[in-house]
């Protein structure tokens, strides 16, 4: 569950029998960042009742680029009173660079009450957290590190089922195979140029048209607008649905109805989410900007698991055990708490 109020007052020791766990999810508010800590919190709630409260951290512009070691709570533009907010939570789950200066302080502020969990590789004071849930392709090591394949996320089979009815009239009549396409964009590691966007769109269109299928397309916040426009123009003639970012996000419903999933290689989050469905996941190439050692490790691991294959213009069927690393991480947190 998710609440917007302060969790119930703690009577002292953690009493898991008489009240839910209190979990604070802390991030800078960007969906791709927040969904990691929120997904982990929701997975904990699925194992044992919890009340989840979300907080967004924002540093004043003049201090935002300072190293974490130099940042002080008074430099925050938003979330400056979080460490003083009581009662402190049973579990603090944070993601992203913006949260680090508070994550290393919450243990002292709560007088040891709060279990501190950081997702991703903090790259700063790694021993200060009770648990680091890190992508195994980052090669983070330490006694408090839990490596997982990919990243924590919010997708579960039940969430996909629950999301389907809202889009049933738009999707259920579409011909099979239904192909969900998750397009990323420009990052430090990859680019999506106009030429490459056109090539990808043409290959996708040719494949789906040959199969007599349909498309369910979403773009990320990192997709360049011109690349999105080019791909939309080249794909819109096919049966299907292309989400333009307006209205309710149909991603969960698309994944529910899809027979195959195509995902660009630039996002560990998207690849992991797709692999959690148990459906064939085809990886689309992007334009590399720098050496791709970490991403190569990620995609090699997903292929070894049986979830993904490089997209070659065909749509073969295969099966594998759906990836469920978020639940594994949730169980680790609960075990550590107890």
The major pleated sheet works out as: 6 strands, parallel
Give start-end ranges of low-pLDDT stretches.
Answer: 1-17
Structural class: alpha/beta
Helical segment tally?
11
- Estimated radius of gyration: 21 Å
Mean residue pLDDT: 92
Classify the helix fraction into a percent range: 25-40%
Strand content: 15-25%
Count of DSSP E strands? 16
| Outline | globular
Output the helix-strand order. Answer: EHEEEEHHEEEHHEEHEHEHEHEEHEH
Adjacency order of strands in the biggest sheet: 2-1-5-6-7-8
- Span of the ends, CA to CA: 21 Å
Lay out the secondary structure.
Elements: E1 21-27, H1 31-47, E2 50-56, E3 58-59, E4 76-78, E5 91-95, H2 100-103, H3 106-109, E6 115-119, E7 131-135, E8 145-148, H4 157-163, H5 168-171, E9 178-183, E10 190-191, H6 194-211, E11 214-219, H7 225-235, E12 240-242, H8 251-257, E13 260-264, H9 268-275, E14 281-284, E15 287-288, H10 293-305, E16 308-310, H11 325-337
Helix pairs in contact: 1-11, 4-8, 6-7, 9-10
């Amino acid at each position: 569950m998710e609440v917007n109020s302060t969790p119930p007052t703690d009577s002292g020791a953690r009493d898991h029998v008489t009240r839910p766990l209190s979990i604070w999810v802390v991030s800078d508010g960007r969906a791709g960042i927040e969904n990691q800590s929120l997904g982990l919190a929701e997975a904990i709630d699925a194992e044992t009742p919890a009340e989840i409260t979300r907080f967004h951290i924002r540093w004043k512009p003049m201090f935002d680029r300072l190293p974490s070691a130099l940042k002080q709570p008074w430099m925050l533009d938003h979330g400056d009173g979080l460490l003083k907010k009581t009662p402190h939570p049973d579990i603090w789950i944070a993601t992203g660079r913006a949260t680090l200066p508070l994550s290393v302080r919450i243990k002292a502020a709560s007088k040891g009450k709060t279990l501190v969990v950081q997702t991703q590789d903090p790259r700063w004071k790694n021993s200060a957290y009770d648990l680091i849930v890190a992508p195994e392709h980052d090669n983070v090591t330490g006694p408090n590190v839990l490596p997982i394949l990919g990243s924590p996320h919010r997708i579960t089979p039940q969430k996909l089922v629950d999301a389907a009815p809202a889009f049933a009239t738009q999707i259920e009549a579409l011909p099979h195979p239904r192909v969900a396409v998750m397009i990323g964009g420009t990052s430090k590691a990859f680019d999506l140029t106009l030429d490459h966007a056109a090539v990808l769109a043409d290959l996708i269109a040719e494949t789906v048209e040959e199969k007599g299928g349909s498309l369910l397309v979403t773009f990320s916040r990192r997709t360049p607008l011109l690349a999105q426009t080019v791909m939309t123009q080249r794909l819109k003639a096919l049966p299907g649905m292309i989400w333009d970012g307006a209205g309710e996000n149909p991603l969960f419903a698309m994944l529910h109805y899809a027979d195959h999933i195509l995902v660009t290689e630039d996002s560990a989050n998207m690849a992991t989410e797709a692999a959690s469905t148990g459906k064939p996941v085809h990886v689309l190439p992007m334009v590399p900007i720098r050496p791709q050692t970490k991403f190569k490790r990620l995609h090699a691991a997903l292929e070894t698991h049986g979830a993904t294959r490089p997209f070659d213009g065909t749509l073969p069927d295969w099966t594998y055990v759906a990836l469920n690393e978020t639940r594994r991480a949730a169980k680790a947190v609960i075990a550590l708490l107890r």
